[in-house]
Amino acid sequence: MCGLMAAALMTGCGKKAAVDSVKLGEYKGVSYTPVPVEVTDEQVEAEIQGLLDEHAVETEVDRAAKEGDIVNIDFVGMKDGVAFEGGTSSDYDLKLGSGSFIDGFEDGLIDAVKGQELSLNLTFPDPYPNNEELAGQDVVFDVTVNAVKESKPAELNDAFIKENTESATVDEYRKVTRENLLAAAQADADDRKKSEVFQKVMDSSEVTVADATVDAYYNEQLSNYESQASQAGIDLETMVSYYGSDLDTFKSQLRAMSEEASKQNLVVKAIADAEGIAIAEEDKDALATEFGYADKDNMVEMVGDTIVNNYILTEKVVSFIADNAVEA
After folding, report:
1. Has the keyword Plastid been applied to this entry (predicted)?
2. Which DSSP category does 108 fall into?
């Protein structure tokens, strides 16, 4: 029989058998650089301003459009004199400066007035994942301006806060906003700490991962992506093109990611075995709730038991490392 190895997942027996093995580095007392957790008055006011902007009131104005205005338009996009698919709309509200349309479209409507008709000669970017046939193509958009509107933020007062938040007054909402921002800043600092100490453990550990282990992880991930593409009614090659990549590059990157993830899984399992860290059913219940699944069974059905177990065990082990870390 093949001998046991630390955190080993054996792929076969015999002289030429490839095995996974881990020689752990230090994982207790790992040093880290703390991240300051603070919130400024400017950050609080920016959050409040965002709320006011969300409830802005639009008013039609009798003047030329400028950046930040909303123009209501009808438009038809044509290539070689023929309207192309997805290039036509009516009664469309477009905020100038939002970057919602291709370059030149919104700029072409600056200084436009109600009732004006314009022809915009533009070129689609290349690549253009939304419609590969239009990538790099010259087109003309015939646009009619129906209205020019300006958007004014809502007025900040107790009545507005009471109507649109769970707070009763502006002062209370400002306090709650600061507390929420502090909680988010603390969560970010905790995440950075975990990332730093776990990377140090990975760097100090000696890991050998068998091709078969990487293959298994890679094939499972590839199958998941193929399923996502199928559910969207497209093939994988088309899906990755939407992200500006090609199938060969995507698979190469997925292979490299699979190798690194496999190494991390081996280190995680070795530490879990050494420290008696295990996965409880309650962990799966909590994770299902966190990510909005109906229950743990639904979660496992959707993403697979292996992925769920690896995620939970990694979270518990990395938290253990972080809890035992020391400030540099």
Report:
1. no
2. G
Alpha helices, DSSP H only, in 232-304? 236-241, 247-275, 281-290, 296-303
| CATH fold of 57-152 | Chitinase A; domain 3 (3.10.50)
Residues 6+ apart with CB under 8 A from 194: 318, 319, 321, 322
Contact 30, 188 (CB under 8 A): no
Contact 144, 95 (CB under 8 A): no
Residue among 151, 152, 186, 158 nearest 173 (CA): 158
DSSP code, position 243:
T
Range 274-293 burial, b when 16+ CB lie within 10 A, else e: eeeeebeeebbeebbeeeeb
3-class DSSP state for residue 161? helix
The rounded distance, in Å, linking the Cα atoms of 107 and 97 is 8
The tens digit of pLDDT for each residue in 60-98 reads 999 999 999 999 999 999 999 999 999 999 999 999 999
**Single-letter code of the amino acid located at 222:** L
Alpha-carbon span 88 to 67, nearest angstrom: 23
**What's the length of the chain?**
328
**162-215, pLDDT tens digit by residue?**
999 999 999 999 999 999 999 999 999 999 999 999 999 999 999 999 999 999
d(CA 194, CA 188): 10
CA 200 to chain centre: 25
129 upstream amide cis, omega within 30 of 0: no
Exposure of 218 by Cβ count < 10 A (0-12 exposed, 13-18 middle, 19+ buried)?
buried
Model confidence at 19, in pLDDT bands (50, 70, 90)?
A: confident
Rounded to an integer, what distance in angstroms lies between the CA atom of residue 103 and that of residue 93? 17
Domain ranges of the chain: 57-152, 187-327
Q: How many CB atoms within 10 Å of residue 88?
A: 15
